[in-house]
Amino acid sequence: MTDPRVENLAKILVNYSTKVKPGDWVYIQADTLAKPLANEVVRQVLKAGGHPSIVLDDDEIKETIYTESSEEQLKWISPIHRMAYADVDVLIVLRAPNNTHSLSGIDPKKQQIYHVARRELTETYMRRSAEGSLNWVLTQFPCPAYAQDADMSLREFADFVYKATFADQEDPLQHWQEVHARQERLIEWLKGKQQVSLRSPNCDLQLSIAGRNFINSDGKNNMPSGEIFTSPVENSANGWVNFTFPAVHRGREVTGVKFEFKEGKVVKASAEKNEAFLLDMLDSDEGARYLGEFAIGTNYGIQRFTKSILYDEKIGGSFHLAVGAGFPEVGQVNQSSIHWDFICDIRQDSEIRVDGELFYKDGKFQV
Predict the structure, then answer these.
(1) DSSP letter string over 212-252?
(2) Alpha-carbon distance 292 to 289, whole Å?
(3) Which of 12, 129, 181, 189 has the highest count of CB atoms within 10 angstroms of its CB?
């Protein structure tokens, strides 16, 4: 018997996050362990009148591709992927890896070659998302690997996931509509503002948001969600940040990350663990050392660190910065093959001022 919370999560993804309409081509990318959720998503897509296509993925296959491919093969892009990114109406990604560190032994240069070659797909996806011709959502299905990373049992982690997504509620769509309304009030206050200043024991950073609106991350693209974000003016960041949480990217955990910014660029970077990997990623291309995102987590139902960026960047009482590709829909022009989030706790002795006015203090909004 299917857990009713799985059915609820599928309904959220199809009927709230992506709003599948009759005739929509829905492309579902799912890890094999996410099959129970994938089956329910297909069911809900069909009920909505859509046309589902599903591709099942696997960690072992990904590892084989990286290990056995030549440079030419790493750069090759499947025409199927090109067509999907260019033509689908809805993209739904369901992640549930067997091992979140399955790629930790792969040469970072190989990963860099693979992802740089697919920059055109990233740009197509971001452009179509910005113009509204592609609706997409990403979520994670509870699996042993995610539970182990979060230091939880599988049952405990599943409860955490379904609570964070409201899939355990009788009317989860109503809960997400309320999240949207709360965050929209903050975004309205930020409209037309110019300068952001962040100060805490772990950061002293200034950046410009002039001409940049914030986006309400209310469960439409990430499930769960709970953040407001924008792309800062490309050359505006000055100062430093010591990120308080580990950053996990492409199967590697990087801890103790410190960035120093000058005129928008990361001019100095260090890490206590996996520093060489961090520097390799920052040297991926010209845009990789510039900020593509500044965001504040608003989901106070997520308070513990799970080593999954989908949850951790939403922690109420945190902000995060992403280096690399920005969001065209807010006017960002920085382009890169990477978009990598780094999170900093601001729940104590911290404040965010916007145009000199106190906006946020010790983990709480002040407006």
Answers:
(1) ---EEESSSSEES--EEEE---TT--EEEEE--S-EEETTE
(2) 9
(3) 12
Candidates 326, 327, 324, 323; CA nearest to 336 is 324
Q: Where in the sequence of the chain do the CATH 3.40.1830.10 domains occur? A: 4-170
Q: What is the pLDDT along the chain (367 residues), one digit of tens a residue?
A: 679 999 999 999 999 999 999 999 999 999 999 999 999 999 999 999 999 999 999 888 989 999 999 999 999 999 999 999 999 999 999 999 998 888 878 888 898 899 889 988 988 988 898 889 999 999 999 999 999 999 999 999 999 999 999 999 999 999 999 999 999 999 999 999 999 999 999 999 999 999 999 999 999 999 999 999 999 999 999 999 999 999 988 878 899 999 999 999 999 999 999 999 999 999 999 999 999 999 999 998 888 899 998 999 999 999 999 999 999 889 888 999 899 999 999 999 999 999 999 999 999 999 8
Name residue, tokens 């492309």. Answer: 27
Using the 8-state DSSP alphabet, how is residue 50 labeled?
A: -
4-170 in CATH: which number? 3.40.1830.10
What is the per-residue DSSP string for 154-179? HHHHHHHHHHHTTTTSSSHHHHHHHH
Residue whose tokens read 């580990």? 246
DSSP letters spanning 62-75: HHHHHHH--HHHHH
Question: What pTM was estimated for this model as a whole?
Answer: 0.81
